[in-house]
Fold:
Amino acid sequence: MFLCCTGVDRKGHVSPDVKEQTQQCLDNIRALAEEAGGTMSDIVKCTVYVVDRGSWQPMNEVYFANFAEDPPHRPLCIVAGLGRPEYLVEIDATAYLSDET
Structure:
């Protein structure tokens, strides 16, 4: 299962804080994985995009807090911009869901 999430909540709100956006990205990924019968443990790879090198450490803190056990491989790309100017982080995730899910 391929997922791509930004830090937009269900009401369309985007926090100006990179840690909050990262948490919202991961909450969105979690919700989509669970809707398909999976969990965060089924995530096998993520690619993280940030618009500022200074966002790396705060994003990392939140990322690893959500994958406390065996976090998936995670390349980080620093990009000039994302889909909307207020987006600071975007996360693509790949989940492996067994046929039994």
About this structure: The chain is about 30% helix and 25% strand. The radius of gyration is 13 Å.
